Amino acid sequence: MRDVAIRRRLAPAGFTIIELLVVVTIIALLIALLVPAIGKARDAALLTQSQGNLRNLAAANSAYAAAWNDRQWGLTADDVGQYGNCCWNDYNTQTGGCPASTVLGYGGTCPPGGGTGLWGYWIPCTYGSNGGNWIVTWPMFLGGSPCGSNLDAGFGSWRMANVESFNKYVGGRFYDRVFYAPKDKYLLGRAECALEIGDPFTLLQDMQDGVVFGTYVFSPAAMWSPDVFSAKGFKTPCTQSKAAWKSPAVGQAAYPDLKTRMLEHQWLQNPPPAEYNGAFTNSKEPWYFNLGYNSSPCTMFFDGHISVSGVAGAMNADQQVYSQNQAAGGLANPGLWVRNITVGPWAGYNGYYTAVAAYDTQVNSSYHVFTTDGILGRDFMNEN
């Protein structure tokens, strides 16, 4: 008889509890390492996209300047201050003409049903309207009640880059993603319906004002004549400076590599945990670029270069120049931005909302907005 051996079939060996714990731990460690890396990569991609938007806007600015004899884009005529109280009706009475209205574009509404037409901020002598439609053409409405307007201080053409007279140099649409930083969820969310429609303009009926302007804003100080934000002393447009609206040419920039031209108005790089700034009456107002020491907005300079330029760097430059000029004496505004604005709420706010809405106590900068000497000034000491 052949020798035989009966053996028990062994079951496949399984993992012990300890081995399973080791595997789970390794997976958890890999996730812990990969998730931040993925987040950083995504953040870097969004930053790169915002810089790309600004490059396109820099090209649009160059195209505008080429078409208009090196002019900066703007909405008001140079000679506005020469007529009466600098109001549309003074201009109309003394010249027989009407200042240009601000055209937003042609299109319908969202939700649909509100009609189709050419939308804009019409000046009263062109089409029945109100004085506020005249004030929005100013580079920045600093305050008071000129021309019967009750417009909120701080608005103006510096925040209106996507209107028709500029957007036709970059795509021809008011709601184009080139005007909105990819990290700007606040504005993108509000404008999403119009962005999807893709018409030259869409009136957003669910919004209080019907309009959502873009992320990127011009430097209002550079749009006004340099004597408005002068180092020798601030001059109120119209009452103290009749030449305020004479916008300087691009080539007049004294420090083109150090003077900001456009940047992200919202605090999007290194933002605070809270999405909204509770200091504003509107409980869902986002944080502005200058309200945090760690804020570093994507920025375009007058020489066309794009960089991420931080509030900390602007503050250091301002403190250096302020100390030097203060010691020398003779200047009402010795720093790189103007403190003694004598109209509107800005003196009480210590600049562009820094005293009333800043995230941290150490931040104190209104660069870009209130740059001393406007286009002749600078916001940084070294190129970023």
Question: Could you please describe the fold and organization of this structure?
Answer:
The relative contact order is 0.12. The N terminus is likely disordered. The chain starts with 16 loop residues before the first helix and ends in a 27-residue tail after the last helix. The protein is of the alpha+beta class and 384 residues long. The chain has one domain. The chain has eight helices and ten strands. A hairpin with a 2-residue loop joins strand 6 and strand 7.
Q: State which percent range the strand residues make up.
A: 5-15%
Give the biggest beta sheet: 4 strands, antiparallel
Number of domains: 1
Structural class: alpha+beta
Strand tally: 10
Spans of at least 5 consecutive residues whose pLDDT stays below 50 are 1-10
Count of helical stretches: 8
Spatially, the strands of the biggest sheet line up as 5-8-9-10
Give the end-to-end Cα distance, rounded to a whole number of Å.
94 Å
How would the global form be characterised? Answer: globular
The assembly state of the depicted protein chains is single chain
SSE series: HHEEEHHHEEHEEEEEHH
Residue share in helix: 25-40%
- Mean pLDDT score, rounded? 90
Rg, rounded, reads 27 Å
